[in-house]
Amino acid sequence: MDMAIRGGRRLGTVAPARLEKDHLLEQAMEATGLDDFGDRWFERPMEALLDAVKGEARLNAAGDFSAMKQFHHVLRDRLLAQMWFKRHPEILARPMPRPVVIVGPMRSGTTRLHRLLAGDRRFSHMRSFETISPVPRSDFEEVLDGRREDFRPVLAGRIMKAARLANPRTLSIHPTGPYEPEEELGLLVASMWGMKHEAQWQVPSYGRWCEGESAVPAYRHMANLLRLVGWSQQVSSIRPWILKTPQHMLDLDALLKVFPDARLIFTHRDPHKVVGSAASLAWNQTIIYSDDVDPERMGREWLRKTALQIERMRAARKTIRPERMIDVQYEDMERDWNGTMRRVYRFLELDIEPALPAMEDYMRRARALKRHPHTYSLAEFGLAEGDVRERLDDYVRAFDVPIEGERPRSMAPRSARA
Question: Is pTM, for the whole model, over 0.70?
Answer without folding.
Answer: yes
